[in-house]
Write a structure and sequence with these properties.
Layout lengths: L3 H62 L16 E7 L9 H18 L3 E7 L1 H9 L4 E5 L8 H16 L5 E11 L2 E10 L3 H5 L22 H76 L1
Parallel strand pairs: 1-2, 1-4, 2-3
Antiparallel strand pairs: 4-5
């Protein structure tokens, strides 16, 4: 059995760790509130931009959409092509399985693509994602770090520029976005979205009834210039906003996961302190009993 001093030192160490985890929990809670405010401010804009893009795509028609590079699906033989995998993770850990579940989803998708004969091009935001992808031996086509706690629109623009350039120039045939969608501090859902190509069906068909062939839907607005030119202006912003939304949702999810993990760590530290306190009391009782036995034995030896 450990001595009373050893147990007391362990209790002191656990209490110090508990102070750190409680402080980290409070910091994560404060940052989470700000991240939630950013999500609430961003979602109406993203939804409005999505509506505008769908309306412009519906007004343009299939023939004009085919001339828009970001709406055009790349050809190629079956079982060939390159898919860009964009993983959104955090720069730091201590957040449970927050980062690892995104990485696992990316690796699982890479395996599915490999069975189909498709190649993967890896892109990752956040130091955890970048280091994990490199550790697994995959070559990174793009890495972006240092802004996961508080992403800015300029950070999303840098990522969007790279993937759009690779898609337009034919280096990528598809881009998949994988990130943690924020639901609540306790729940972050791994979400996979096809970022490119923005085909007519993907952009214009969400939640809308398809137009009949003889009775096409009329646009709600008149476009000047024509809808094709409007789409060419809207689509880069649409992609940029989609990436920015993923970054903001991931940031909120990270703080929620970290707050939950640190709260659990603090509770576990409390349980350990309770167990160690009992162990220390037993050690103290054993030492007192041993001293009493020694005194009694000494008294009997003198008598």
């Amino acid at each position: 059995m450990a001595s009373q001093r050893d147990v007391k030192n362990r209790i002191s160490s656990v209490k110090n760790i508990q102070k750190i985890t409680r402080a980290m929990e409070m910091v994560a809670a404060a940052r989470l509130r700000r991240a939630e405010q950013r999500i609430a401010a961003l979602r109406p804009y993203a939804e409005a931009l999505g509506r505008m893009t769908r309306q412009a795509a519906r007004a343009a028609g299939a023939s004009e959409i085919a001339r828009v590079p970001l709406m055009r699906e790349h050809g190629g033989t079956e079982g060939s092509g390159t898919v860009g995998l964009l993983l959104v993770t955090g720069d730091r850990g201590l957040a449970g399985g927050f980062n690892s579940q995104v990485i696992r989803a990316g690796v699982r998708l890479h395996g599915e693509l490999s069975t189909e004969g498709l190649r993967s091009a890896w892109y990752a935001t956040g130091r955890r994602g970048v280091s994990s992808v490199a550790f697994r031996g995959y070559e990174l086509s793009g890495s972006y770090t240092g802004f996961s706690d508080r992403p800015a629109i300029a950070d999303a623009r840098a990522v969007a520029d790279d993937v759009v350039d690779a898609y337009v120039n034919g280096r990528l045939d598809r881009v998949e976005l994988i990130f943690n969608s924020y639901v609540s501090p306790l729940t972050q859902v791994v979400t996979r979205e096809t970022l490119l190509p923005l085909s007519h069906a993907t952009v214009a068909g969400e939640g809308e009834e398809p137009a009949e062939e003889n009775h096409p839907q009329r646009a709600l607005v008149e476009y000047e210039p024509d809808p094709e030119q409007v789409l060419k202006q809207l689509l880069p912003d649409y992609i940029e906003t989609s990436i920015y939304r993923a970054l903001v949702e991931s940031a909120a999810g990270f703080f929620g996961a970290q707050m939950t993990a640190m709260r659990s760590a603090s509770d576990n530290a409390g349980d350990i302190i309770t167990d160690l306190t009992l162990q220390m009391n037993r050690a103290r009782q054993a030492e007192i009993t041993q001293e009493i036995m020694e005194v009694v034995a000494g008294a009997e030896g003198l008598s």
